[in-house]
Amino acid sequence: AADIRPMVAGNWKMNGTRSELDQIRAIAHGVSGPLSKKIDALICPPSTLLYVATTLTVDTKLLVGAQDCHQKARTGAHTGDISAEMIRDCFATHVIVGHSERRKEHGEDNYTVSMKARAAYDQGLTAIVCIGETRAQHKAGRTMDVIHRQLNESMPADATAENTIVAYEPVWAIGTGQTPGADDVARVHARMRADLVERFGARGEAIRLLYGGSVKPQNAPELLSVPHVNGALIGGASLKAADFLAIYHAYE
Ligand code: G3P
Q: Is 99 a catalytic residue?
């Protein structure tokens, strides 16, 4: 629906040390002007920078999120993991779950992803649930089936537009400079919208659908104007404030 508030989100992945905090400052400054009345902006730095990032962005319009959380919401013996409670404690408001890099490198399946989303809900965080087909699945013409199943299995039954954002990231488009055509993105996003409405009714109408995978300043105007694309999840181009802001300003 036309009244969904768009979001431009950046996922820094395993990038970013203290010396890149200037980029976060610059992004926060750049997204706090008049366009902030219409568009949300979010940055997801590595967890080592999470607390300092929220501290730096206090009194700005830039939202801060984490890149992953454990499926257990609070404390426990899980060396190396961080919980949704810890993320909230850092004053972050969002957490990415089920990114394809987590699915691939850490063996996370749809069920695990849905548990992580629940952990986020438990702590009042908004989960950004990522789905997307691999290149092989794409080539085999299985995109729609894969998306349908991932969406259905990765999203908890109590998902709402407040606690959940969906990001469609074709795995073959991530970090490759290749993107699906606008028509293909439109087909997938229309299907996701239809699936959400079928499952959640009116709630499903309002859930944001982001596109991710090689979003750059040059292709952002086209990708962001595709029907049912309610924003972008940006990897590489979110590391430089100038690129992030150029994509954000595609909404002008
Ligand atoms: O989560 C965002 C990401 O996977 C897209 O990465 O570098 O292709 O924009 P990139």
A: yes
Query: Residue 138 has which token pair?
Result: 């794409």
CB 11, CB 67: distance < 8 Å: yes
Q: Which pTM does this prediction carry?
A: 0.98
Q: ipTM exceeding 0.90?
A: yes
Instruction: Please tell me the distance between residue 171's alpha carbon and the centre of ligand 1 in angstroms.
Output: 9
153 is catalytic: no
Q: Is 6 contained in some domain?
A: no
CATH classification at residue 170? 3.20.20.70
Find the helix packing angle between 241-248 and 21-30, rounded to 10°. Answer: 20
Domain of 166, in residue numbers: 66-232
Residue among 99, 138, 189, 228 flagged as catalytic: 99
Ligand 1 centroid vs 104 CA: distance in angstroms? Answer: 15
* Nearest-angstrom CA–CA distance, 57 and 148: 37
Average pLDDT score over the chain: 97
If one counts the domains in the chain, the total is 1
Which candidate in 94, 108, 169, 228 is catalytic?
A: 169
